[in-house]
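To: structure subgroup
Subject: Chain for Friday's discussion

All,

I'm putting the inputs and outputs inline so they're searchable in the archive.
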Amino acid sequence: MSTPEEEKTTRRFDTWDLAIMGLGIALIAVCSWISIPMTVPFTLQTFAVCLIAALLGLRRGLWTVLCYILLGAVGAPVFAGFKGGFGALLGVTGGYIVGFLFTALVVGLASERWGRKLKVLVPAMILGILLCYAFGTAWFVLVYTKNSGPIGVGTALGWCVLPYIPADAAKLLLASLLSVRLYPLVGRRPTT
């Protein structure tokens, strides 16, 4: 006989889970379409990924982000600039999209383990975004070097990370504040 904790980690997604995850996928997609074109488009994706992971926790948040990525990989225009397809993931900015998985992992784990409080969420979101930056920048350097010639990490950081830090800081703070306020409304399973 399994314990309630084991059942919680091994249970399948029910209708509530699928509905809330579907809304999360839609939110990330809509936030990706709100875009200011630059070398790496400035979007609200990081805001949505952090908010979803904080609200839904590790398992549902990570699956939501993975399903969003897979939806884009099969061609749905859910990425920035209404792009989709596997080629978008293999391009120079694809590493940042894949890096959202690291963000969801860190934020979801922290929110479940230590609660949805600002003192937990803000550092978790910062760490999650730093991991996304690291993975995305390494990917950018590799793909750019293969397609266009050598590029240094400093140059890649100057193009792909440094210009976005102020906006991402604001997005993370907003996602943290909203997570704390919204969790009582949408983060918990409704009782019947």
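Points worth raising on Friday:
DSSP finds eight helices and two strands in the chain.
Helices lie at 4-10, 15-33, 45-73, 86-90, 94-114, 118-148, 153-160, 165-187.

D.
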